[in-house]
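Hi V.,

You were right to ask for the full record rather than a summary. Here it is.
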Amino acid sequence: MFKIITEENEWNKTIGSFEKKDFYHSYDYHQVCLKENELAKLLFYSSGDTSIAFPLVIRPINGSEFFDATSVYGYGGPLISQLTSHFVFQDWNQHMLDFFQNDKIISVFSSTNPFIDSQEHLLLQMGEIETMGDIVYVDLKQGTERREHYSKTTKRYLNRNKTIFDIREGNSEEDARKFLEIYYQSMERVGASKQYYFKLPYFIKLLQNKSFFDANFVFATSKENGDVASGAFIIRTKSSIVQYHLSGTAEKYRHLSPIRSVIDYISRKEKLDDCKYFNLGGGVGSKNDSLFEFKASFSKNRAPFKVWKYIANKEVYDQLCTIAQEKDYNKKFNTNYFPAYRTNSYFDIP
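Predicted structure:
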């Protein structure tokens, strides 16, 4: 059986039937990530004991009759249940290809999730997998011994900051506004692109979701004056994964690194003991940069972050690349970017 799911209840019921999943696969998260003229579709396939649910965002290729597909920001890819040795990959592949061709989808790009089993094994049957870099995660089953893996620098900050900051949680609109203040300061500091400047409704919708995950803020506040010094937007998939989704630190408190106290609080929080992993993510652009080294100061656990690339219609793909390259007056066309025809935004919606 192969079906396309777009309705909220059926989407979340389908995702909820998988033992291993992440909030990145939910209907609510897809909806807050959609841009104008984009659609979210869940591809569901079932054969024998095997089930697959693959959420994708379908977006128009401006100035053409075609579309391409991508994943939401974060760690996506297909959910898979019981991928046995008897599974017929050819049947799955054909259903996928038929869908892409019928919907005039030229190429597909998807992130993968390091904590979901069998994704690479399934996706390698079509297209290619590229390793971008490592992510850092905390094994929540290690108990209090997790702190033994902290670096000396992190331990030093934590010992000092416990006399400077309190830790509190929140999920109100006012908390979202306070978080945005420090989050935007952090984005300006690193020169982040506009796509990372999430607006207030983004947070409110995720806080109020009716799906299988919980979202809240964790703040480090000044004991002296109550200022919000640092904060993180944490999203927890029940009985599975805790995601360090977004974070920010006020400029005036940056030298004290209060976000370390926030991360420590989350990693040892008692009610998270039924979860398995606390994912801190990787560096900017999946590089082993200063951000990666900061996260690595909390854990020695690493997992590869990989992406999947597939060209469903090579002829049209090449034609679009040629057009984009001809229109690239600034000579920014990059054949290593995927899909290459979007490297200079010529085919993006204005």
